[in-house]
Inverse folding.
């Protein structure tokens, strides 16, 4: 009886593990090494107060795809510390639009970005401040 119960517990546990969304996204065939950053990001010596708030929001809402320090995640989303996203190519409003309406895949082959809920325009402008500080620390002006 005990052996049977254990077998069921392990079976259910394994099933939950394999089908949890987080785990599954890492098992997508195109995911490759899903936890691998795509860009090498140098960190600024210090973040501004706005940058720090932006970092907190970014870590909560964006880093699951765009990676820690916006360095990208293999198979999930591009680095935002990248020349493509310099202010002249992707102004602050393109960040607002990406969050509010999502992004149709066009620069990369990661797929579409869904809209991100629960952020005000003010929150997003803090995230942009954070990303710009990271970009400047990596020579992206
Ligand atoms: C579910 C994964 C996912 C999440 C979460 C996510 N993104 Fe994205 N994002 C993507 C992908 C994939 C792309 C690349 C689309 C492409 O091919 O150009 C992208 C592109 C972008 C772009 C470029 C937009 C453009 O006009 O080209 C910006 C800016 C951006 N994301 C900001 C954010 C911010 C800020 C957050 C958090 C609030 C966030 N993303 C959360 C997946 C994600």
């Amino acid at each position: 009886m005990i052996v049977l119960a254990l077998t069921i517990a392990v079976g259910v546990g394994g099933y939950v593990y394999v089908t949890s969304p987080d785990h599954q996204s890492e098992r997508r065939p195109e995911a490759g090494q899903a936890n691998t950053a795509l860009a090498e990001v140098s960190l600024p010596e210090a973040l501004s107060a706005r940058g720090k708030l932006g970092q907190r929001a970014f870590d909560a809402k964006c880093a699951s795809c765009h990676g820690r320090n916006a360095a990208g995640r293999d198979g999930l989303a591009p680095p935002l510390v990248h020349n493509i996203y310099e202010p002249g190519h992707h102004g602050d409003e393109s960040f607002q639009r990406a969050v509010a309406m999502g992004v149709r895949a066009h620069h990369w082959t990661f797929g579409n970005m869904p809209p991100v809920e629960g952020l005000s325009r003010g929150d997003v402008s803090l995230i942009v401040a954070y990303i710009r500080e990271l970009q400047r620390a990596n020579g992206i002006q």
Summary: Residues 23-33 have pLDDT under 50 and may be disordered. Residues 61-62, 64-66, 77-78, 90, 94-95, 98-99, 103, 105-108, 110-111, 113-114, 116, 119, 127 surround heme C (CB under 6 Å). The CA atoms of residues 34 and 74 lie 5 Å apart. The two ends are 66 Å apart (CA to CA).
